[in-house]
Fold:
Amino acid sequence: MADSPGRPDGTDDEDQDVLIGEEPGASVHPMLATEDSYEELDYDLNIEAPITEQRERLASGTIASIVEEHTGPASAEEVGTEATELENDVERSSLEGDLSNLQISEEVTQRRADTVPDRQDVPNDTDEEVLQNREAGQREIKDEDIHSSVWRDHKKHVFILSEAGKPIYSRYGNEDKLVSLMGVMQALISFVQDGKNNLRSIVAGGRTFVFLVRPPLILVAVCRTHESQQQLLLQLTYVYNQVLSVLTYSQLSRVLETRKNYDLRRLLGGTEKFLDNLLNLIDQDPSFLLTAVRCLPLDSTVRDTIGHSIQSAKIKDLVFAILIADNQLVTLCRMKKYILHPADLHLVFNLLNASTSFQAADSWIPICLPKFDSAGFLHAHISYLDNSKACLLLLTVDKMMFFELAKCKEKIVEKLKKHHCIEAINRAVAGGGYRCLEVGISDLRHFIYKSKSTAQFTAPELEAPYREKEERARLFNMYQYVHQRVHNAARPLKIMFHVGSREAMLGWVTTGFELYAVFGPLATKQVAILAVNKLLKWIKKEEYRLFILDPPEF
Amino acid sequence: MSGSRVDLKVVLLGKEYGGKTSLVERYLHDRFHGDVPYQNTIGAAFGAKKIEVDSRTVTMGIWDTAGSERYEAMSRIYYRGAKAAIVCYDLTDGTSFDRAKFWVEELKRNEEFCKIYLSGNKFDLVENDKSRRQVDYHSVTDYAEELKAEVFETSSKTGHQIKELFFKIAQDYVKEPRNNDAAPEVPKTLNLTDKPKKADCAC
Structure:
């Protein structure tokens, strides 16, 4: 292993090659928020930020302001009361839950010893059985024996518990059986908190334990991988956001603040698959690592036509229109004043990715995008266009707008059909992206390029020798490794060249972009630097196909 | 699916895992995915279908709602203005019928003109194995009588009683004088402005 940290002489030259704002994929019209979550996170953790400040990281009130703008302050209040209505309901059910809790509390110890796990809060036994049976069928991993080595040896465990130490979620195994383990986690955290300190990570037994406290939740990752503490924290933050997207922060904090003992699984029931899926995506999709969005490569004229078609169907209170195909963004049309955070968009991708039920019928679902507004729900009309791979999401603040949006969607489909855009999207998806060969650099095997000013990234399809699943995973780990080295808070690097036994990798970070490139193991640093310069020129030439540089607005 | 003109709004309510989505799937697309693992509905899904009753075509707009407790407060926006509600329960799960009663109460309180149809789902499971039945047919019919509700025991797997259920809903709708008066010609003229009718996308 021979890696050399960026040498001032080498990097300075490279920096001058590309002027800021001229780098490939740069745009002055961002549609996505570009603050780097990775560094933001670092800030969160390095400064002893009080909880209130951490909360401010979550936006709030955006939805109310949109409503107010369009209909006057009175109805904004109405939205407010409706939100509380929901919460009241929750409180009521939480009360019920608590009552049964009291009744059962005496049996608890005995029950824990039983082989069959019980949900202590659910009053009815048959109810429980049904739930259990179903969940078992749904998530086979739930059946795993937590005392087996298979369970222990999973590469990455993720746990969610309440501040009171109640289990909420475990990536593997049934969280019911993990009561005592989660108790230990909670004890560790509160012990350190007692000394006015924060527990961030523990390294022991070849594993890294990372803790993220986001009151009223505690998230823990236990890994055998080589990801850095920062990377794992970022992943836990995504998991936290996923929970918020189902509940909203206001509801979550309200429920757990009034009833510390509340079993949150009652409210999260049925959404485990989204957490499972999210964690699987995080382990293979660079968008999470880079906090960036991948666009479907598409001829710019086609993309413009799609943008105009969506724009022309504009109706009041439509905040975002998002067209997604094959986990890639086709276009995003937004209200002029509002931009979307990539982390929110990742939740949307995960939603579509984890569920096939949207293909069957038009859906209407509440979703909270925590970076946009963690206090309330947006309402999404979700439909796959004309049985194609393209999925359209129309997001609004008004929960009664389903039919208006259905009409809006019909208009859009009509226009897209007229201009043969849906076929174009299907073709682009079937084609599977572009090939590294197109770039014309012989030794270049793969690359990931992120344009910082637009929070978008591009990468060619994975080809030999990265066809096999194991090899893909290994390559992704290599990317993670280079990423963590160049972003190391204590010793950040501008450029890094790493030669391994099977490939050489170049990582290069400037104010405008991040580039990671993979070469054959015999490539030298000079060859690699020449190659990436050529690569940047190629990306620049193709930037309108690879990125969304002129996003449409309502 | 076209959301433009719906005569008859139908809403499905009931406990999660009760078979609401499968019921709609069977009726709209005549299919049943036995091998696909359970997928809970998020929010709600909408589908529409035309049905011919007494030489009149009725467009049914069907709302399939999520059974999860989390969405309970939202369900109100789906049954508001509904002409018919199919309150589902799982014949193999006794608690699902308690949940059905909850929805019936809720509807009676809020939607006076909404007709209630009780649908015991997963009939195929109890048909051959009587021991699996957890909800007694006669106690349901007694309950329904008080409500003036209809009872169907359906199976989305075999299609048992499903067409009959929706046909009955359409028939009751057409027979109800209030609905005939309230069906103005206006929307039809509106329809003309809609471009040549394109094939409904199968959703």
Residues 73-290 of chain A form a domain with the Beta-Lactamase fold (CATH 3.30.450.70). Chain A touches chain B through 44 residues (CB under 8 Å). DSSP finds 21 helices and 17 strands in chain A.
